[in-house]
Each structure stands twice: as C-alpha cells, then as structure tokens.
Amino acid sequence: MPAIQTSLTQSQLAQLQDSKLFNADLAPVPPERRKWRYGSFAALWISMSACIPTYMLASSLIGGGMNWWQAILTIFLGNLIVLIPMVLNAHAGTRYGIPFPVYCRAAFGTQGANVPALLRALVACGWFGIQTWIGGNAIYKIMSVFFPSLAYATASRAFGINFPQFLCFLFFWGINMLVVYKGIDCIRWLLNLKAPLLIVLGLLLLAWAYRGAGGFGPMLSQPSAFDPGQPKSGHFFAYFFPALTGMVGFWATLSLNIPDFSRYACTQRDQVIGQALGLPLTMALYAFIGVAVTSATTIIYGQTIWDPVDVLTRFTNPVVLVVAMLALCIATLATNIAANVVSPANDFAHLAPRRISFRLGGLITGLIGVAMMPWKLVADPSGYIFNWLIAYSALLGPIGGILIADYFVCRRCRLNLPALYLPDGEYRFTRGFSVVALVALALGVLPSLPGFLVQVNLLDPARVGTFLVGLYHYAWFVGFAVAFLAYLLGRILTSFPRPTVALDQPQAALESANLET
Asked: Which of 87, 160, 286, 447 lies at a 20 to 30 A Cα distance from 440?
C-alpha cells in the first residue's frame, strides 16, 4: 500500500497553479504552518461558545416548560453529541491541511462539492446576520441609555425595526467586514482577546446577580412543567427530543466545516482534546450563567430579563455601560467572524477559485446576511428552535453522514491529495458530480421535508401522517443515519473504486486514475 501524502511538494504546487480548482486560500496548509495545539482549539471553542445566543439559549427551553437543570443538561448533551462528528470531520483537515470545500470533493466530486459547501454557506449567512443583529442591537440599546429619544423611534412596518436600530446594525456590519478585509491573523487575535473577556464579564454578572438578589431567585426553584401535577405532565420526552435536535443543530454548521480550523492543528490529539475540553463544558457553563442571572433579575427588578444587554442597560454608571458595550461588541464580533465568516468565505471562493478570494467571499456572506433580515429569525423563541435550528439541521445532518461514511468507511482516511485539485482526477466522478452522494443527500433530507412544511404552515398536518410530522423533530439524527446508509449502499452497488496510483505520483499518473461511471 502506498504511503499517505499529507502535503504537496513544490513540483506539485507548481503543476497545480494552472488548475481551476486551486488557489492559495484553498491550498493545503504546509506542515510548518500547522501550529495549533490543544490550547488553541480550547480557546477557539471557549471564544465561540461564550456569546449572547448561548447565554439566551436556555430561555427557549425553560419557556417550553423545562426547569433550569433540565435545560442545562439538554444543552450539554446536545453539544456532547455534536462533538462526535466535529472530531471525526476534523480528522481530514488535520491530516491533509485541507479546508471544508476541498474535503467535500472526495465524496461529492470536484464540482458536486459546491452543493454541500453552498448549503453550509447559506446557513452561515443566516447566523452571520443573527450575530450581527445582536451586536448592532447591543449598541442601539446602550446608546438609548445616553440618548433616550432613540428608544422611541417608530418601527418600519416592512422591516419590523426602526431606523436607528438599522443604522447600528449596519455600523456593526461594517466593523465585521473590516475584520474580514484584514484577514485570518486579525481573526485569531480577536479570538484570543475575546475568550477571557466574555468569561470574565459573565462571571462578574453572576457575582452581581447573586449579591443583589441574595441568591439566584425563583428560577432555580421553579418546577418543571412536565412534573406530575404540572400543566405538561407526562409530555417531557415529546419536548425533550426536538429540543435536543435543536441543540445539536446549534453547532451542526461547525461540525461540518471544522476542517477550516483543524487544518492548522499540529496533531490529531490536539484537535480532539482541545475540542472536547472547549465545547460542551463552556456551552453548559455559559447557559447556566444566563439562567442564574435571569433568575436573579426577577427579584432585583421585579421582572424576568433574558437579554444580557437589557440587564446591562439597567446600570447607571456611564463607565460600566461603555465598557460593557465594548466587551459585548468585541465578543460578538469574534464569534461571528470565526463561526460564520471563515467557512462561507471559503465556500464561496470554492465556486470560482480563480475569481473569488477569501475577502470577496466574506463580503458576499455579509450581503446575504443583511438580506435575510435576521431580526425576524430570532424574534420568536419557539420559531428559533423549530423553524431555524431544526430546519437547517435537516440539511446539515445528511451532509455529515455522507462525509463520514466516505472518509472513514469507504476510503479509510486515505485521500489522494493532489487529485483533489485536478479537474480530471479520480474525484471527477460523473462530469465533476458524484451521483451517489447527491442521491444520498436527497434521501437524507426527504424524511424531514413533510414535517418542515407543516411547521412553516405550508402543508396541512391532516394531509401528512403523524409519523412523518414527528420525524421532523429528529431531523439531524434521521438525516445523518439515512444519508450514511444510503451512501454506503450506493457505493457498494456502483463498486466504489479504490485509488490505483501512489499518492505522490505526478499529474499525468493522477489523471489516469479510475473515474466513477
């Protein structure tokens, strides 16, 4: 068996310069630039997890009837589950130094890889818009403390927000675009700054709440609505599994494009340990901070305040307000760029590597994020889980199943690195598209489609069986399993071709590799 080639030689790089599938942003990271240890990955996840949406995540679950510990446990379990595909998909990035779109070429084909890349990119655009809206709205609310007239501006009927809110949103959007223009080094600096910043801010809020309320208040003693004698008694699991799917969906995007980060890892051990330490615990801790502080606001202010920005606006010290606004903006900015710009920028660049750079891809992401009107996506907590998190998990679960089936089962972690950048190499399949992967993707999405159409009121539930409607609540799990099995079956039926050339052979030999027929 030939040796595994995990980086390109200088001669191979020279040969690939004329390939339409190659540019500097999509090229494998050379070994000398793979410097991320487990601490870098832990910091990455602490930075991305410690954000306002995580702080407010438990509110949707408690609003649905859970008590505080059920909500935190659901969040922790969801992130523990999504950690598995996260670590598995990170393997290819760590071994070969390739980004997510290039990783997709092995399963979907050199052109077919645009399908999962674009699906992932569009979801990221939505998240980019949501995080940008949160940052812009934080600026607006704190500015309203200094200039009270801003709070009374009339909202537009068409957009649902007022003009000062929109201006703050665009201002924060512009800051995001500036960071994208500065490049990946600026992003890493932001992450390193943000990781301790928001953790400290959260712990300070926790200490303030505990002292001000003399404890954490009634929220932590509130019974579950699913307990015996309560309004939703006996229906816990009917709510728990859809909620768990939503929690998996929260980071389902990153579970796919994690090679965009793991390509900089020193070893597999670094990415596995770093992610295991950084993701589940941080999500659970920050969600708990959100629950505890919110519980205390019930005693301190006589009302339940879930939004940390609204809590901060209750402070009268102008120095505290300014510092808090800067901290929230930096924290939201760092999460937004790392989680929602790096991947779609690469994905859009993958469409036309010769024409679209990382910077232009980031700008496209930003423009689509504005067009999606993100303030409407987060307006309803129930819709946030069932119409947004679960809906896109129905798309991303099948992609994850296909990638893992192809890389670990079919190829046994062996990729022909130079051929990933060749239009006529072994990953060309059928005119650049893997029919097997595309069919498996469609089959993975199909079971959740009726339930989604019912959820968004485009289909009468009476016309769809109860079983199909219920499948939607397990969209990520069902899609992953169906696509995984369908892909393996398709490869068996089409006699999956194994590489017949050494991985370090020159271009002429690579172009003669077996093609899918």
From this structure: 87
